[in-house]
Amino acid sequence: MTQIDYSQKIPNNVDLGSDKRLQRALERWQPDYINWWREMGPTNFNENDVYLRTAVSVERDGWAHFEEVKMPDYRWGIFLTPHQKEPKIGFGDHEGQDAWQQVPGEYRNWLKRLIVTQADTEPASVEQQRLLGMTAPSLYDMRNLFQVNVEEGRHLWAMVYVLHRHFGKDGREEADELLQRRSGNADHPRILTTFNEPCEDWLSFFCFTMFTDRDGKYQLLSLAESGFDPLARSCRFMLTEEAHHMFVGQTGVARVIRRTCEVMNEFPHADPREHGAIPLDLIQRYINFWASSSLDLFGAEVSSNSANFFAAGIKGRAYEDKYEEHTAMDQFYEFERFQNGRLTTESVPMRNAMNEVLRDGYVEENLKGVEYWNRECEKLGIDFSFRYPQRRFNRTIGEYAGSRFDLQGIPIDEDGWNSQVNGWLPSLEDKAYVKSLMQPITERGKYAAWIAPPKRSINGQPDDFEYVKL
Ligand SMILES: [Fe+2]
Ligand SMILES: [Fe+2]
C-alpha cells in the first residue's frame, strides 16, 4: 500500500485502520500535537493560506504536491518508504540476517534512545524558528520557512509513530514528553545543545538549515541503514523532505552574499552596512558559529556507544552500500588526539570511530557548499574566500572540548582565544546589526535590501506570486 489515505483522521500508508488500539492512541496524541503547534509553532500565521507541498504518495513524484493550506490543517501523517522484498540487516554482527520488524529485546533501550534523540530535534527546530515569520525578507522566504516547519512537524509524527507502534507504554510516554520539552527552556530544555540555541534572525536561520539540518540528514542516513526496518523506512522517507531544507540554507546564504557583493561593486569605498547589506566577514562569523555548533551534534570522536550501535546493527554508516565490507572488524581509524597541549595521531578500532566516520562525510559535503558560496563572490568579481572552520574550532563535545583552537584547528591558549574571538564568532555588535535589518517585507515579488532574490521561484510560479496570503 503506497497511496496515502487522506480520508483518515491521520493520513498514512501504514494501514493504521487495521490496528484500532494504535490508531486510538495516536488520535489521542494528535490534539496535543495541534495544541503544541498553535502554542510553539510559527507565531501569528496559523490563519493564513500558505503555498505548501504535501506528500500525496511516497512514490518518486508523489511527495511534492502543491496547494494552499492553513498550517494547522497541513496533512501531517505517517508515511514509510515501501517495503523492500525481504529486507536484510546490512552491517554489524547480524549482517545478512533478516531485518527486524519488531524491536529486538536486547537493543530496545538503545533504539529508544536513538529515536527519542532524533525525534526531539524536530519540534525543537520549529520552536527555535517560531518568530521568524514576523521578519521574513519576502513572501518567498516566509513560505520556505513554513515549509521547513511543517515538514519538521511531520518528522516528529514519523518518529512518534515508531514509538507508539513499537515501544508500548514507554513509547507513549516519550511521545508525550516530546511535546513538553521546550527549546532554550532552563528547566526543561531540548536534548541537544544546538537545538537550544536562539535562532532569531534570518542569517542564523539560513546557517541553521545549511549546517544543522545537514547534521539531521547524516543522522537520518545512518538510521536509514538500521536493521530495525520500521525505523529505516521512516528515515528514508524523511530524507526526501530534508533535501529542501538544505537547499533553503545553501541558497539563502548565497543570496545574502550575492547582495553584499553587488553593493560592494556599486560602492567600492563604502562599508556595506551603509547600504543595508551584511559585510562578508560578518557572514563568515555566523558560519563559524553554526558550523562548529553543528559539528558537536555527531558526538564524541571515540565512542563506545557508536561501536555498540554499529555492532548491534541499529545505526550504520551513511550510504553503507558504498563500503566493500560491512562489519568494520579489524579495521582502524586514524584519529587526532589532543593531549598535554599536543596533537598526536592515534589508531582506534573503526567501530569506536563511527561518529567520526559520519562526521567526515558531513564535513566533505559542507566544504562543497562553501565552495558554492565562493563561486558567488568570484562571479561578481569580489576577492573574498569563505572558509569552513576546521573541526576542532569552538567545540564543546568530544576530544577538543575544553581546549582552544583557531579557525585552522591550531591549538592556542586562552589569551589568544580571548583576543581574537570577536573576529571569529558573531560579536554583540554583529548581532545587533543583523537584528536591525530584520524588517518584514510582505509586498509580492519584493525582497529586503540585505538579500538578493532567488534564481528560481517555487514550482514554476511567477516572480510576484503570493506565496503567503496575509
Ligand atoms: Fe527533520
Ligand atoms: Fe530539516
Please write out the topology:
Blueprint: H1 20-40, E1 49-54, E2 65-70, H2 108-128, H3 139-166, H4 168-178, H5 202-223, H6 229-266, H7 280-295, H8 304-312, E3 332-339, E4 342-349, H9 354-379, E5 404-405, E6 411-412, H10 414-424, H11 428-437, E7 468-469
Antiparallel strand pairs: 1-2, 1-7, 3-4, 5-6
Residues 122, 152, 155, 216, 242 line the site of one fe (ii) ion.
Give the structure's gist in a few sentences.
The protein contains eleven helices and seven strands. With 470 residues, it is mainly alpha-helical. The strands form three sheets. Strands 2-1-7 form a three-stranded antiparallel beta sheet. A two-stranded antiparallel sheet has the order 3-4. It has a two-stranded antiparallel sheet with strand order 5-6.
β-strand number: 7
Mean pLDDT: 94
CATH topology: Ribonucleotide Reductase, subunit A
Question: What Rg is obtained from the alpha carbons, in whole angstroms?
Answer: 23 Å
Strand content: 5-15%
What does the main sheet amount to?
A: 3 strands, antiparallel
What is the strand arrangement across the widest sheet? 2-1-7
Bound molecules: fe (ii) ion
Task: Give the tally of structural domains.
Answer: 1
CATH A-level architecture: Orthogonal Bundle
From the N-terminal CA to the C-terminal CA, the straight-line distance is: 38 Å
Structural class assignment: mainly alpha
Superfamily (CATH H level) name: Ribonucleotide Reductase, subunit A
Please mark out the parts with pLDDT under 50 across 5 or more consecutive residues, or reply none. none
The global form is globular
Fraction in helix: 40-55%
CATH level-1 class: Mainly Alpha
Query: How many helices in DSSP terms?
Result: 11
